Amino acid sequence: MTLQEYRRKRRFDNTPEPEADRQRRRGRRPIFVVQLHHASRRHYDFRLQVGNTLKSWAVPKGPSFDPAVKRLAAEVEDHPLDYANFEGDIPKGQYGGGHVAIFDRGLWSTDEDPEAQLAKGHLRFHLFGDKLKGGWHLVRTHKPARQPQWLLFKEKDDYAGKREADDLLQGVASSPAASRRGTARKQTRPSKKRTRSGTRWAQHAAELEGARKARHRPAFVAPQLATLQAQVPEGERWLHEAKWDGYRLIAQINGGTVRLWSRNELEWTAKVPEIVSALETLGLADAVLDGELVAGAGRQQDFSLLQATLSGEKNATLSYVLFDVLQVGEVDLTNSPQSQRKALLAEILADPPDRLVYSSHIEGRGDEALAMAIERGLEGIISKRADAPYRSGRGDAWRKIKQRASDEFVVVGYTAPRGSRLGLGALLLAAPDAEHGWRYAGRVGSGFSDTLLAELSERLSGSARKPADVHVDVDDPDLRRAHWVKPELVVEVFHHGRGNQGLLRQPSLKAIRRDKEASDLREAAPGTHKAEKTMSTRRGRSAKKPTPVELTSPERVVFPDSGITKAQVFDYYQRIARWLLPEIAGRPVSVVRCPQGAARPCFFQKHHTAGMERVDSVPLEEEDGTRADYLVVHDETGLLELVQFNALEFHPWGSQADSPDLADRIVFDLDPGPDVAWKQVVEAARLVRKRLRALGLVSYVRTSGGKGLHVVVPLKPACPWTRVKAFAHAFAESMAGSDPLAYVATASKKFRNGRIFIDYLRNGRGATSVASFSLRAREGAPVAMPLRWEELGRIKGGNAYDMASALRRMKRTRSHPWSGFARLRQNLDKVGEKLALADER
Fold first, then answer.
1. Residues forming beta bridges with residue 443, ordered by sequence position
2. Which of 166, 292, 562, 637 would staple 244 via disulfide (CB 3.0–4.6 Å)?
3. Contact 12, 97 (CB under 8 A)
4. Under CATH, which number does the domain 406-524 receive?
5. What end-to-end distance do the CA atoms of the chain give, in Å?
6. pLDDT tens profile 574-588
7. What digits encode the pLDDT tens for the residues 794-809?
8. Which fold has domain 662-836?
């Protein structure tokens, strides 16, 4: 659209009319304005913002509220947006000379593309002004005329009636003096056919259990928030609603005046006048309601439409989905049960006006509710305890269950654009971190519109700073050139979990959360689990004051098949620490970290990284001659910090950190190939024990937590790795040679069908094997469990113990199954000769 015709008709040195917009309208919804124009012929100018101009029509008799009356509207040239604020006198002799006064103005919306509708000749739209409200139509006629002719008429709705525009002229400036004094605008009330009896609803409210007299007139109430859960709660005492994807709004109706508030108590009344108008029609003189502002059907894919509408990029219909009522009249309902509040709300919205929607629910049958929500394209459900009162803040009475991974992060920086991209390249994100405040979580560079890129670039470019507010523990060269900003802006991001280094995988921007602040992310972080750090002075290491390990995201499901959460894993390691620590303490240890849970890709980590404050490190020489800092756990707090870092498995070296070249144990991993029965694995372990005993070596057995068994030989004093590796290799070859149809000593899988691999490769400097009592990142949360040899015949498989049964076992036995392991003195000094003799026999 162009303003060329508008400029051609005017001499701006002689007219006070605006020549062009002084600034771009960014982040604002489309406006309309109706001006009373006393030109050579008195008429109303009707203008709708479409794009960056005002589409304009001259309506001689003005709009009529009677749907049967169709008013002629002659299309005229487009006007600049600044014209919406113009009042005053256009000098005589100039184009349109005469007085101009504002009759009404506000916002407008339409369900479909306005330009496409105008091209077809029929625009359906809604007005949200002080006088003009509800649905309207503009239909192009086919009568030949100098200017395109349209018909403007009212839709049959709650605002229809017999009124004319001239009936509402009280307070509209009709002279230059009046224009300078300003224009009083009288609010138009809806027709009486939708009038509700507020007194009747207040009487019903007073009958609810727990209802009480309100202490004050209706006011903002901090909303109740839901806690993220992995599983749908069971039982008839739960109500399950759709999880609407929108903006939370609290509606305050005080003396019939409606005000809308965001969850952070920012007023939204002027942003969504259509919702204000709809709430006015309820007839509630005093009330407080809770709901969600949505666009379309309130689905995940509609959230971007909602944001685009609120920012002015699009012009969709918005709705207010109501799911709670907190006050009616002088009755406070916050102590009333959830189910009774919902029942009253259903009565109030039995015949809801346009733009208001009642959020229905299912009692019990949560899995069915979740399936229905997903089928409708919703993100999930909100489960609410039917007997619970309304309590501000986050609690357990409301739970949200989502199916698509999306999380909220704070923006801590951005990268420069590349190629043809404008504005910025990607947003740098961070999540709350107990130790550092914010921890870098990755970047998001997709899901942006050009308009949003420009807005973000303008907003962020003026606040560059050093990255002092975020802890970055990854080595990414691009971050050295990044622009860092204060952590204030909150965004919601779709993603496919976390990859290496704990960064987001395939993130895509879902929304800018203008309704939230960075502090909300901290409040939303689930409760913390703490373990006290008990430090001992060890080899010159000074004791430290106990400090807590804080667990983030305790509700995250780690083992999807069994629903085990991160909090439960943390609790397991806290309870098993007294048994696990002797296995790993003081040794270089590798961990298997699973940021996305055991069912998603995990990664092996052996080196210390920044951010691990309670886990020690030891510099060790690598195979290439360089040195690197290896993880070393000394105490329970270090162990639990690794669990906080999503470690599921612990794999220690067979040597101490202060003597890494001397092995103090040998591990034989009996790994069965396909089609090997468990009974054969047990027989193999017993044979290994027998052959080791013949060499004068005592051994111990444990389940691997997988398919096989481990036979472990303690060495005291420790032996050089070269001797241990040579012995383990020779022993495995001896086993394979004695029964080549049952055993194999090579790692190649093609030789392992129907046979057991005697894995000796865990016996070399830098090699590891899973620790006793460690979880395994496999289905069912199995545990590597040490056994007494006499128990072996009763075990059904290498994964016989899981997290729960392992805790029960150790609580019951109260002693380590490997009695005497730490006190046993044996080594390989005389074993070589015995092994050679055994081979000869």
1. 428
2. 292
3. no
4. 2.40.50.140
5. 99
6. 999 999 999 999 999
7. 999 999 999 999 999 9
8. DNA primase, PRIM domain (3.90.920)
